[in-house]
Design a protein that fits this description.
Length: about 300
């Protein structure tokens, strides 16, 4: 017999056992959140107002920045407020909403990164057909499909996670509600449905990953056929930011969900969760703007100077 009861709230106890982390993570999280917010908002403003940044690549980048703002806003503000108020509870509905939004936005970002790889494939391998293939209507449909697939992904997983009875104590050893930590509270042998969803979604994600790999195989082949070394570098440099973001996103996600999840706190699990939920939205604006002359020129235009072009 299992001691399943009706749940009204969970306790998010990620950093409460370590007084050093308790004192450091609030200012650290606040600075990281502020950096991510400002960087992604700046990209949205630049790609909306500057006429040189109206290509499909920047349209997808604008959506990626919007996703990243929402993505980091799902977890970090709530965690900061909990720590400042010394109240670590989250309602059952709030926990379910947090899991849905987190998985929804992560799935949308992954789908959008696949779309962006296809954009680079068409631009490099079929440049003469680029404008016809990646027209405004097609780009809009791709973005809508990415958001819709993320919504379906989040709905499936939140339904699978909360379709099982939970056995107390209802303490989540994380700073936000995530699926592995919540499933440790399920009664023994119950979360079979969610594990089936995880296996199915991982299989589908792997198929999408193969599509991304195929795109870059064709891109590398096209780049190697360019006669000049300068031409090869210039062409491939347009793919470096996207490739870096894909590696960061996939590595942090895989490292987090393959980590050991237990009913006790783990510094490694907390570090992996921070890596997965906080790092990508914070560094994506830096990755996409650091060596992008068009972005720096647009920013210099707003600031009233050309200083950034020499960086």
């Amino acid at each position: 017999l299992t001691n399943a009861t009706i749940i009204t709230e969970f306790l998010l106890m990620g950093f409460t056992d370590n007084q050093v982390l308790q004192g450091l993570y609030v200012p650290f999280f606040f600075l990281i959140y502020l950096t991510a917010l400002m960087g992604n908002l700046l990209i949205i403003i630049l790609t909306t107002t500057d006429q040189r940044l109206q290509s499909p690549m920047y349209f997808f980048l604008k959506n990626l920045s919007l996703i990243d703002i929402c993505y980091i806003s799902v977890t970090v503000p709530k965690s900061i407020i909990n720590s400042l108020t010394q109240s670590y509870s989250i309602s059952f509905l709030g926990c379910a909403s947090q899991i849905f939004l987190f998985i929804f936005l992560a799935g949308t970002e992954y789908a959008l990164l696949i779309v962006m790889s296809y954009d680079r494939y068409v631009a490099i391998c079929h440049p003469l057909y680029y404008e016809a293939t990646m027209n405004r209507g097609t780009c809009l449909q791709m973005v809508i499909a990415s958001w819709a697939s993320g919504c379906a992904y989040g709905s499936i997983h939140v339904a699978g996670t909360f379709s099982v009875p939970f056995c107390g104590p209802y303490i989540v050893h994380q700073f936000f509600c995530d699926i592995p930590s919540v499933l440790t509270l399920a009664c023994s042998g119950e979360p079979i449905l969610e594990y089936a969803f995880v296996i199915a979604s991982c299989t589908f994600a792997f198929v999408c990953f193969l599509f991304l790999i195929a795109s870059y195989v064709y891109i590398f082949s096209a780049v190697l056929r360019i006669p000049s070394a300068q031409g090869r570098f210039k062409t491939f440099s347009t793919c470096i930011p996207h490739l870096t973001v894909v590696i960061l996103f996939l590595f942090s996600g895989i490292a987090n969900y393959l980590g050991t999840n237990s009913k006790s706190a783990s510094s490694l699990n907390l570090f992996m969760s921070v890596l997965y939920s906080v790092l990508p939205p914070s560094v994506n604006p830096l990755i996409y703007s650091l060596r992008n002359k068009d972005m720096k020129a647009a920013l210099g235009k707003i600031l009233g100077g050309k200083l950034l072009l020499n960086i």
